[in-house]
Amino acid sequence: MPSVSMEEKKNSRGNEGVAIRVFALTFLHIFDMISLMKKIIDPAKLRKLAALSRLGSCDDELEGMVTHLNTIIEHAESLQAVNTDDVKPCHCVLEEKTLLMRSDEPDEPLERQEFLDNCPDSIGGMVRVPDVMKNGEGE
Amino acid sequence: MLYKKSGREIRDLFVSGEMTARAIAEYFIERIEIFDKEVGAFLTILKDDVLEKADKLDAKKAAGQPLGRLAGIPIAIKDNIQMKGMVTTCGSKFLENYISPYDAHVVTEIEREDGLIIGKTNMDEFAMGSSTEYSAFKTTYNPWGLDYTAGGSSGGSAAAVSANLVPISLGTDTGGSIRQPAAFTGTVGYKPTYGRVSRYGAVAFGSSFDQIGPFTNTVEDSALIMEVMGRVCQKDATSINTDPDPYLETMKQSIQGKTIGVPWEFLEDLSDEAKENFSKSLKAFETLGAKITEVKLNLLKMSIPVYYILSPAEAATNLARFDGVRYGKRSESAKTIEELYDLSRQEGFGSEVKKRIMIGMFVLSSGYQEAYYRKAQKIRTLIIQEFKEAFAHCDVIAMPTTPTSAFKLGAIRCPFDMYLQDIYTISANLAGLPAMSIPSGYCSERRPLGLQLMGPQRSESTLFNFAHHFEKEMDLNGKIPPHFNRERL
Amino acid sequence: MSETPFDAFEPIIGLEIHVQLNTRTKLFSRSLNHFGDEPNTNIGIVDTGQPGALPIINKEAVKKAIRFGHAIGGEIALWSRFDRKSYFYPDSPRNFQITQFDHPIVQGGSVIADVEGVSKTFEIEHAHLEDDAGMLKHFSNFAGVDFNRAGVPLLEIVSKPCMRSPKEASAYAQAVRAIMQYINASDCNMEEGSLRIDVNISVRPKGESALRNKVEVKNMNSFRNMELAIESEIRRQIKSYIAHPHMDPKEVIPQSTVRFDLTTLQTVAMRSKEGAADYCYFPDPDLPPLILEKEMVDELKATLPELPHARYERYVNSIGLSEYNASLLINDKPLSDFYDEAAKVCKNVKRLCNWVTVEFVGRLKDQGIHLASSPITPKLVAELVNLIEEKTVTGRIAKEIADIMCVHPGKSAVEIIAENPDFVPVHDHSAIEPLIDQVLKENPQSVEDYKNGIDKAFNYLVGQVMKLCKGQAAPSVVQEILKSKLKES
């Protein structure tokens, strides 16, 4: 349920904003009903997503993020109404585009020094990092 | 006065010998140093580099060598475009000190044609935003009203051209990030067909949406730089394999009898002011001999949810490389690898970027990918089809670029409201269509409004054609914001 | 509760083999694909995940993948696609790998391998292309990352879970390696990491048709260790099932990864992660689908050389070599090529096999040299064997000649004989007759025995003659003269 009233919004943006606000609120209103029943993202889920995205704890921004993500997801529910039986997913936006292959000739080297110049920490020509992850993901 | 000149005119002055490249460069550097304090368009001014290159260009001319198509023209580029040896921040603290190890395709082509890259411009962090308020470094102000946003994410590039700090600048457009700022700042902003301009060297946000495109004060300058930037590149597998058409030539053809499609249903909620301005634009086209017809684009209302599922998914993986390992900010407090990732990214990324990354991972995660990501991919196919069908009945589609003129800085607090700014621009990115915003008038408070023209894929020529005639008819291009219409403060 | 013996269980084994293709440059970048160089000296912007870098696929890598597909009789997908596989690890330049998740380039196929004398067919699920990660080197309290290996093309070959014993797994893996060498797709050097094997092992009671949870053992560094690891893991799983007859099998052996301890030669369960990793696979937007032309695919099929199994059949069926020797040869392509070359000019190809695989290889092994890379040419070995065939030298002398050939590689047998005249058996009748006369005189009893039909006496007399002449006389001549003399007397 959006917490900012119509009045406040009007004051902050002037009359031109009417159209867009109506537009936005129409969508949000429809899904308010759904949102009361079905919040897909809760703080626990957000923390899991933050972990998957390797973004740290996000604790100080948690509530705002939960609300925001749920808004987007609820908005996305409108997609389910579109019939996509027998529709192929879009593989490449550009029509008739296929993958061109290149020759096996070397070119475009990156000098080691130039690479390491941007590196926060390096040693012996290698990038230095703390030792391996505990739940070693490596392939 | 030099600042009023278009890029093409500046080149003429140089080639004819009236001004040296050095004099041109010095002039604009000084102008930027004076006025950018108020505009905040630039993150870096490449003073030494551009003067060095200007001197080389003067020597080249003196030696009688052939001069490039952009010779002597000062050009600014958005700070998410790699330029070897220069800092490239993408508007983010994460890359505050990152030095480009290579040149983007567009930089190589501009320099090949003797263009003078004068500075890197401000932007929303990693191109995620519609007001440049999400830049980690500074705010960019709209030269037509310094309390107002210049739009985003390419706000810096738009403002730079709007205040005539440079005649040409480059931005990137993923959901409207060139066109919306162009409309807000009264400049010509062009998003090419997907793949028309190589993305090699443009820091990726939404790989299947991103395009680099120009801001200019004239359609002619836009066509000129597009002929250069659009050249074939072997280093981007998603780019078009043929060279651009000669837009400067083809844009002069008549548009008599051509058709403009308007999706009236989609524009029902426009404000009266916007409707009026839009009607005026359409009348101008009718005067030029074009016909107006209605097109039905039922899926346009799906644009925002589809875009805000697909682009974050691509962005989440594109931004995974920013981990503090090989470049960028590494957290000082990190003691383990896990901490290195988590803390560097937590400290380095702004809040909007984090939100988009998480939404991206959410729609890609198992259990949700089918319902969100794959569903959105399918609807994208349908949107592309719908546009194709619409273009069977018209040459271009016209819409206002934005629902309103520029909003006040700080006015839009709710991030989702910010997303709705892109309502008219996003569909072009979804379908890979070329689209241009051209100045079409002003709101009651004398801030610019823009008209958007979209064409089928690879129809750059058609768009330049329509835009060229519109520009002449409306005589709005090149209008300079009063405050900046001078050489000194 | 009844006791369930070990052999009431059957193992189900599948292999995932990663092969580094021996292209000159990497899969998606033009950096050199070369092992053993100084860290971070074969890198580019793609391999180090620089912002704005884009992948461009190497045609040679695709061709090698296609040839492998043909070699295993698999189906080449004329439409395949690349996907992003997301995971964070320091050796990953982008924190996603580019792989082929659900549309690989090769589907199906099989490999025939000889398992302890029996020919078995092993089914392959699919093979796909993906890029390799960099290398993480562990030090005392930090790790160093070298990106030389990042981006090297890998062909991952996934078998069906069709192996039923460690020996089968080993035979299959060796057969795959042999094919790779024969089609010149990889040198498959396990020490250098161009061949890496992950094994998936599960067990189930015989008669059960469903598959139980599998356990993965990663990065086997030799075929022998792989066999030991498989054996150890099979025992471990069976023991667990036997010890917990009433527990849900999925809990007895959870899906997990185990480590193979090189000191105890046992598999050791690692602490299992909470839940499987979510790799969020989705199509890579930087790479349009890979569409292959049927002509090109068919042409590549025609260029295949004789494959290992076909060669094996030829050795066993046409030439008549033993299965053991045939296996030995085909699993060492350079040696096998050497043998084939020598066989072209050799009068006894079966005898040649022994000289190649035992006599010469054995002698050079001590020096640490491979016959095929030594100055000893196939022609030289063939020549020696021919000399034996022609009875120019005895077998015993030939061994001495071989000794010298290995100490002075490149020297021919003929040259060596010329320098050592007593290597050549004496054929001169006038030199041999007196010796025979002497022996006959000294061994009247043997002469008598021979006349009485005891054939053994003849051999004895021959032996005495050879002893007398210290083996210098040509045995055939000795026999000839002896026979005639005995007849006369």
Distance between the termini of chain C: 87 Å
Instruction: Quickly count the helices of chain C.
Output: 16
Give a quick account of the main beta sheet of chain C: strands, pairing sense, barrel closure: 10 strands, mixed
Put simply, the count of helices of chain A is: 5
Computed structural class of chain C? alpha+beta
Strand content of chain A: under 5%
Q: Assign the structural class of chain A, choosing from mainly alpha, mainly beta, alpha/beta, alpha+beta, or little secondary structure.
A: mainly alpha
- Report low-confidence residues of chain C grouped into runs of 5 or more: none
Overall average pLDDT of chain A: 76
Notes on the protein architecture:
The complex is a heterotrimer of chains A (139), B (489) and C (489). By secondary structure, chain A is mainly alpha-helical. Chain A has a two-stranded antiparallel ribbon with strand order 1-2. Chain A has helices at 6-13, 17-37, 43-52, 62-76, 112-117, and strands at 122-123, 126-129. Chain A is 43% helix and 4% strand. In chain A, helix 2 (17-37) crosses helix 4. In chain B, 38% of the residues lie in helices and 13% in strands. Chain B has helices spanning 7-16, 21-39, 47-62, 105-112, 155-162, 179-185, 219-229, 247-250, 272-287, 303-318, 337-348, 351-364, 370-390, 415-419, 426-431, 460-474; strands at 42-45, 74-78, 116-121, 141-142, 145-149, 168-173, 188-191, 211-216, 259-262, 291-294, 396-400, 435-442, 448-454. Chain C has three domains: 5-298, no CATH class; 332-423, no CATH class; 429-488, Arc Repressor Mutant, subunit A. The model of chain C has no long low-confidence stretch (mean pLDDT 91). In chain C, strands 1, 2, 6, 7, 8, 11, 12, 13, 14 and 15 form a ten-stranded mixed beta sheet that branches. A three-stranded antiparallel beta sheet of chain C has the order 5-4-16, with no helix packed on it. A two-stranded antiparallel sheet of chain C has the order 3-17. Chain C is α+β, with helices and mostly antiparallel strands. In chain C, a hairpin with a 4-residue loop joins strand 14 and strand 15 (266-269). The chains are: A mainly alpha (139), B alpha/beta (489), C alpha+beta (489). Chains in contact: A-B, A-C, B-C. The B-C interface holds B 80-82, 88, 90, 95, 98, 101-102, 104, 199-204, 206-208, 234-238, 313-314, 317, 320-323, 325-327, 337, 341, 361, 364-366, 369, 373 and C 45, 48-57, 84, 86, 88, 90, 93-96, 145, 278, 280, 282, 285-288.
